[in-house]
């Protein structure tokens, strides 16, 4: 697989609540849910050898590749391959870990990258770290949004990565709370999401009240994906200029 984002999305088999069902209905319904397997991703030649990513949906939606994750990984490889040394990096809602692993493999870094997600995703993140021989530089951890940060996470990391984390409205305040905990004076969050429902824009509206949010628009690939409702933002801690 290359950097092409035209892959099929499908209704998650783990939908249980009404809200989940609404999310499912906004995606293309499945005929034949993808079985577990390893995908090779080279991001149009940016990664040699390619990233190997196990996809397995048995533990949840993070077990497959998502379009915003592909775009954010590609953006980081194209724009930040050589300016991340000395930076602490944390990924939120990492799923199988595509963004953090791509950064670990294709960007010059010298500190651990923390891939985080809920407990059911831990084994998949660990397996993908192993598959790519990145255990020396990538540490998967459980981080539930809205909960206290795990002690291993550096306070106020320099870079926070979050892709396709906006899709379940009850989780919006939890994600905002975790972003509030993580964003320090020098932190920068690259936040990429695909808008599927009107509620997704409500998330960005709330985020703009709490943080400094700037859309990244001067990038050929992100501009193209904007037409598919995939948006990439820089989020920083907000300072009240009147204080
Ligand atoms: C749509 S997937 C995106 C996965 C990956 N970032 C990508 O782009 O391929 C959303 C991820 O957010 C995680 N997630 C959802 N709610 C969460 C929560 N409350 N705390 C932590 N992670 C959560 C899910 O487990 C899932 O892995």
UniProtKB/TrEMBL annotation:
Record key words, sorted: Cytoplasm, Membrane, Methyltransferase, S-adenosyl-L-methionine, Transferase, Transmembrane, Transmembrane helix
Pfam families: Methyltransf_16
Localisation: Cytoplasm
MF-aspect GO terms: protein-lysine N-methyltransferase activity
Keyword Methyltransferase: yes
EC assignment: 2.1.1.-
Keyword rRNA processing: no
Main location (coarse class): cytoplasm
Positions of S-adenosyl-L-methionine binding: 66, 93-95, 117, 145, 163
GO biological process: methylation
Top-level class of the enzyme under EC nomenclature: transferase
Cellular component terms (Gene Ontology): cytosol
TM helices/strands, residue ranges: 171-193
Gene3D superfamilies for this protein: Vaccinia Virus protein VP39
Database matches in PANTHER family: HEPATOCELLULAR CARCINOMA-ASSOCIATED ANTIGEN, PROTEIN-LYSINE N-METHYLTRANSFERASE EFM6
Entry function: S-adenosyl-L-methionine-dependent protein-lysine N-methyltransferase that methylates elongation factor 1-alpha.
UniProt similarity note: Belongs to the class I-like SAM-binding methyltransferase superfamily. METTL21 family. EFM6 subfamily.
Protein name per Swiss-Prot or TrEMBL: Protein-lysine N-methyltransferase EFM6
Protein's organism: Polytolypa hystricis (strain UAMH7299)
Species lineage: Eukaryota, Fungi, Dikarya, Ascomycota, Pezizomycotina
Gene name per UniProt: EFM6
